[in-house]
From TrEMBL:
<dbReference type="GO" id="GO:0016787">
    <property type="term" value="F:hydrolase activity"/>
</dbReference>
<keyword id="KW-0732">Signal</keyword>
<feature type="region of interest" description="Disordered">
    <location>
        <begin position="51"/>
        <end position="81"/>
    </location>
</feature>
<feature type="domain" description="Beta-lactamase class A catalytic">
    <location>
        <begin position="124"/>
        <end position="336"/>
    </location>
</feature>
<dbReference type="InterPro" id="IPR045155">
    <property type="entry name" value="Beta-lactam_cat"/>
</dbReference>
<feature type="signal peptide">
    <location>
        <begin position="1"/>
        <end position="32"/>
    </location>
</feature>
<dbReference type="Pfam" id="PF13354">
    <property type="entry name" value="Beta-lactamase2"/>
</dbReference>
<keyword id="KW-0378">Hydrolase</keyword>
<feature type="compositionally biased region" description="Low complexity">
    <location>
        <begin position="51"/>
        <end position="65"/>
    </location>
</feature>
<feature type="compositionally biased region" description="Polar residues">
    <location>
        <begin position="67"/>
        <end position="78"/>
    </location>
</feature>
<dbReference type="InterPro" id="IPR012338">
    <property type="entry name" value="Beta-lactam/transpept-like"/>
</dbReference>
<protein>
    <submittedName>
        <fullName>Serine hydrolase</fullName>
    </submittedName>
</protein>
Length: 362
């Protein structure tokens, strides 16, 4: 009995030791697991936070890029050109936006400008490439007597604001429309002062003033101190023609999602396009253009020149408009008081055209 009791006691003691060892091992495992969990969680949490931050930044960057692309896509050719004109230094002999002149081009331009300047003439120039938006100016803000160049912005304002129904005018729908068509034709192609005066008396200056303000022109076009003419800078004349370019050559009305897709609306759009084409063609056949003779016969020039040589103490030899070339279109305004100096202007215009081809284009 004593031997059996001793053996039982020994077995019980061994069991207790094994239980204590097992509990110790379990406790050690639990402590190790807790430590590992505390070590892992901050790292995992930090990685997750970094990933979330990077995703957020990526989303913001992508959204910014999409917004920029959307803004660029929504900006019209005319708006981009107007923006570039506004960035030119109005008082600098040479100012550029969107590109840099190379040494050779700058020397040629300086020579052409200096020839006019040394002869005592005021010259104001702006050229804008309509594909790239790149712009070049020389004393862009200097005002020169407009002479008949002002007839183009005035007529463009009447058409674009709807002050005249251009389709009805072209069709000669009424006697009044027929008379307006004749006045426009004579004022543009033959530079008739009487026809221009008739238009001014019929339609006034309100629409012209609102249109000029919307375009960003600085000159007060309603000021009749000089009659129906005024002093105007190349920058303002280029603004007028950049807007005119959009109206004559880049009508976006067919992209209007609200436009009804019907035969009638299609016919109306075609008629409107034909009317604008008629007006553009008027500017392609102007008498006395200074730009046209200076360029290649392959180029098409839509412009309205103006000239006066001392009458009333006024001087001007100027031209402004759109030049269509095989490599793209550009707006050019050359305003000077160099009356009669055609060769000097031909040289300047040819130099500007070469710079646009070599440096400013796409």
């Amino acid at each position: 009995m004593r031997a059996s009791s001793a053996q039982a006691a020994a077995r019980a003691q061994l069991a207790r030791r094994r239980l204590i060892m097992a509990l110790g091992a379990a406790l050690a495992i639990a402590v190790a697991a807790t430590t590992a969990l505390h070590t892992f969680w901050p790292t995992a949490n930090g990685a997750a936070s970094t990933a979330a931050s990077q995703q957020s930044q990526s989303t913001k960057t992508s959204a910014a890029k999409e917004q920029t692309a959307s803004q660029s896509k929504s900006q019209t050719t005319a708006e981009r050109a107007l923006q570039s004109i506004g960035k030119l230094d109005d008082s600098a002999q040479i100012s550029t936006v969107g590109f840099d002149l190379d040494t050779s081009s700058q020397m040629q331009l300086e020579q052409a400008l200096s020839t006019l300047e040394s002869a005592g003439y005021t010259t104001s120039v702006v050229l804008v490439d309509m594909q790239t938006g790149n712009a070049l100016g020389s004393y862009a803000g200097s005002a020169v007597y407009s002479a008949s160049t002002i007839k183009a912005p005035y007529i463009l304002s009447l058409a674009e604001t709807g002050t005249i129904d251009l389709q009805a005018v072209v069709a000669g729908s009424t006697d009044a429309d027929t008379q307006t068509q004749s006045n426009i034709d004579q004022a543009i192609t033959m530079s008739s002062n009487d026809a221009y005066a008739a238009l001014r008396k019929t339609y006034g200056a309100d629409a012209f003033a609102k249109w000029a303000s919307a375009v960003g022109m600085n000159v007060d076009v309603s000021d009749e101190t000089l009659g129906y003419y005024l002093d105007i800078s190349a920058a303002d004349m280029a603004r007028a023609w950049a807007q005119g370019y959009g109206y004559l050559f880049e009508d976006d009305s067919s992209d209007d999602a609200s436009a009804a897709d019907t035969d009638d609306s299609a016919d109306s759009a075609d008629t409107d396009t034909d009317a604008r084409a008629w007006l553009a063609n008027e500017f392609a056949n102007t008498y006395g253009s200074v730009i046209r003779p200076a360029l290649s016969e392959n180029d098409t020039v839509y412009s309205k020149p103006g000239w006066i040589n001392g009458e009333g103490g006024l001087y001007s030899l100027s031209d402004a408009g759109v030049v269509h070339t095989d490599s793209g279109d550009y707006v050019l305004a050359v305003m000077t008081d160099a009356a009669g100096e055609y060769d000097l202007l031909y040289n300047l215009i040819a130099t500007l055209d070469q710079i646009r081809t070599d440096v400013m284009g796409s």
